[in-house]
Amino acid sequence: MKHDHKDINRPLNDILVVDDNPDNLRLLSNLFTDQGYKVRPAPSSEMALRSVESIPPDIILLDINMPEIDGFEICQRLKKDDRSRDIPVIFISGRDETKDKIRAFESGGVDYITKPFHEEEVLARVKTHIELHTMQLRLEEMVRERTADLTKSNEKLRQTELEYRSLVENANEAILVTQDEVIKFFNSQTLSLTGYSDDELSSIPFITLIHPEDREKARRGYEERISDSPKPSSYILRINTKSGQLKWVLINAAQISWEGFPASLAMVTDITLWKESEGKLIKSEERFRAFVENSSEAIWCYEFKKPLAIDLQVEEQIDHLYKYAYIVDANDAHARMLGYELGEELVGFSLEDTLPRSLPGSIASLEQFIMERYNLVDLETVETSKHGEQIVFSSNIVGIIEDGHLLRVWGTNKDITEQKKIEQKLIDAERKYRTVANFTYSWEYWEAPEGGLEYVSPSCERITGYSVTDFMERPELISEIIIPEDRAIWNDHDHGSTNNTETTPSECHFRIKNKNGHIRWIAHICQSVYNEQGDQGGVRVSNRDITELRNTEQKVLEHRDMLLHLERRETLGQLAGSIAHELNQPLTGILGDAQAGELLLKKEKFNKAQLREIFAGIAADTKRASLVIRNLRELFSMKKTDYNHVNINTLIRETLQIMNSEFIIQSMTIHTDYSSNLPNVDANRIQLQQVLINLIKNSCQAMLDSEKKDRLMSITTSVCNDDQVAICLEDNGPGIDPDQLQSIFEPLTTTKEDGMGMGLAISRSIVQAHGGEIWAENNPNGGIRFHLTIPAQR
Amino acid sequence: MIDERPTIFIIDDDPSARRGLSHLVQAAEMRVQAFESGRDFLNQVRDDIHGCILLDVKMPGLSGLDLQDELMKRNSVLPIVFVSGHSDIPDAALAMKRGAVDFLTKPVDGDQLFKAITESLKKDRENRKARTRKADVQKRLDTLSPREYTILEFVVSGMLNKQIAYELGITEVTVKVHRGRVMKKMRADSLAELIRLAEVVGVKPAEVND
Question: Quick check: helix, strand or coil at residue A171?
Answer without folding.
Answer: coil
